[in-house]
């Protein structure tokens, strides 16, 4: 069963070959990558702490460990670069196919950090006296 926000079968088919092998050379096999990636996406989508990850994705510790291991190995960067290089992966293709609803699909990289005391401060700039 695919939960809302989880990877579709088409998305998974594009992604699975870009991930490390589920069967490492030594040790026990990894948990299903698709379930792990869906758990990571849930965390990224909700902004929740790892400990709040729903049990359907597996143990939060395992999911977090895999996320950070792949981050350190450069896996996420490689996936991004590969998908950006694919002609069918770009927004132009999805837009041409009518798969983008510009009311909900957008990228906003804005991050504004403020000091914790910034809230509730006096409005307006202070005037400098000579």
From TrEMBL:
Domain Insertion element IS402-like: 7-79
Pfam families the record matches: DUF4096
Top-level division of the source organism's lineage: Bacteria
Signal peptide: none
UniProt-recorded name of the protein: IS5 family transposase
Organism for this UniProt entry: Nostoc sphaeroides CCNUC1
């Amino acid at each position: 069963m695919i939960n809302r926000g989880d990877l579709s079968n088409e998305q998974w088919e594009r992604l699975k070959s870009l991930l490390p092998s589920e069967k490492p050379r030594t040790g026990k096999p990894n948990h299903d990558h698709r379930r792990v990636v869906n758990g990571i996406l849930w965390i990224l989508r909700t902004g929740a702490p790892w400990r709040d990850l729903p049990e359907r994705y597996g143990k939060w510790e395992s999911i977090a460990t895999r996320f950070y291991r792949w981050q350190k190995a450069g896996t996420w960067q490689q996936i991004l670069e590969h998908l950006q290089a694919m002609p069918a992966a770009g927004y132009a293709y999805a837009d041409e196919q009518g798969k983008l609803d510009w009311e909900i699909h957008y990228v906003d990289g804005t991050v504004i950090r403020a000091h914790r005391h910034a809230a509730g401060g006096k409005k307006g700039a202070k005037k400098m006296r000579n």
